[in-house]
Amino acid sequence: DLKRIQTKSTYELIRLDVIDCLASGNATIEELAAKYCMTTRTLQRKLKLEGWTFREVVDETRQLFAEEYIGKQNKTVDECTRLLGFSETSSFIRAFKRWFNKTPNQYRKDYIPSI
Length: 115
Fold this sequence. Notes:
This protein is an all-alpha fold. The protein contains eight helices and no strands. Helix 2 (about 10-20) crosses helix 5, helix 3 packs across helix 4 and helix 6 (about 75-85) crosses helix 7.
């Protein structure tokens, strides 16, 4: 809806689309640029004006969901791999280690929900 598009930042719009596309792995900049009737380069420029790259939006979104899935929802590593759109479990584990400096299983073991 046009009013929603006009009131949200480019980052917010793209992040919502990335969330919708994560599990299918189809969150590409080309598809999202086409959705908003702009070129890939224009979308890159708009994100850059807000301090983001498309890759950073996808990475940050995956990180937030990974923390939720592993820490709070106790999902398996394989479930997380699929839900976050990673093609291989090893790719998810590498990304998780980059984000949290520990493997998903170490994170889960160390995780204590805040009260």
